[in-house]
Structure formats: C-alpha cells, structure tokens
Design goal:
By secondary structure, this protein is an alpha/beta fold. The protein has 5 helices and 4 strands. The chain is 46% helix and 13% strand.
C-alpha cells in the first residue's frame, strides 16, 4: 500500500487488521513527498507482491494517486496479479466537520485489501 502524510496511520491500522483477520502481510510505503516520489521503492514492492493499493485523502479523480497508478501500470503490468486499486476521498466538496466521513478510513482500506487479495 502506498500513501503519504497523516493518512499512513490509517494504512498501518488496516495492514494490522489484514494480518490479524486474513493472515496477510502488507507492505506500507510512506512516500513522504510526492514530487519526486520514490518510484524505485514502489516498483520493487509491486514486483515482489504483485499488488498495489494507493490511498490518500484527496479526491480520487485527477490526483497524485492516479499518476502513481498510471506509472506503475506502465512499468509493472506483467508483474501485477490484481488491478491497481485506489482508495481516496470522494469527488465532492465537503465541510471540515465531515472529515471522518469523507476521508478513507481503515475499514474502507481493509475492504480494498480483501478485494485485491481475492481477485
């Protein structure tokens, strides 16, 4: 799983849940910065695991996650065992009081893990 910023805590929580409930080990990569992003680390992880989930708090459409997904798809297609999955915010404005609903939480990320594993 690839993410950045404070959202990485959600990914780590989801990875722990996947280990406990599914017996699956997830690699969580915190990009720390998105330009330039650590392409080699992500590519090596995808080649090793055959799967990738990109998750972030921004809207799903036209975000950095889409660019990361596109680049990995171009270069790692033959290594993928499941489609790249993106888990992100909704494509709509939201009031800050609704952040907990808007941002992808650990259960949404956990569902993505199950989907990618069972593909």
């Amino acid at each position: 799983m690839v993410g950045w910023g404070s959202h990485v805590r959600v990914l780590l929580s989801s990875a722990l849940m996947a280990k406990e409930k599914l017996g699956v080990n997830c690699e969580v990569i915190d990009l720390r910065k998105v330009l330039p992003w650590d392409y080699d680390i992500v590519r090596n992880s995808v080649r090793k695991t055959g799967r990738m989930i990109v998750s972030h708090e921004a809207p799903i459409t036209c975000g950095v996650g889409a660019e990361i997904s596109a680049k990995i798809q171009e270069d790692c297609f033959l290594h993928l065992e499941a489609p790249i999955t993106r888990v992100a915010g909704y494509d709509t404005p939201f009031p800050h009081t609704s952040e907990s609903i808007y941002y992808p939480g650990r259960f949404k990320v956990f569902e993505a893990i199950k989907k990618v594993i069972n593909y």
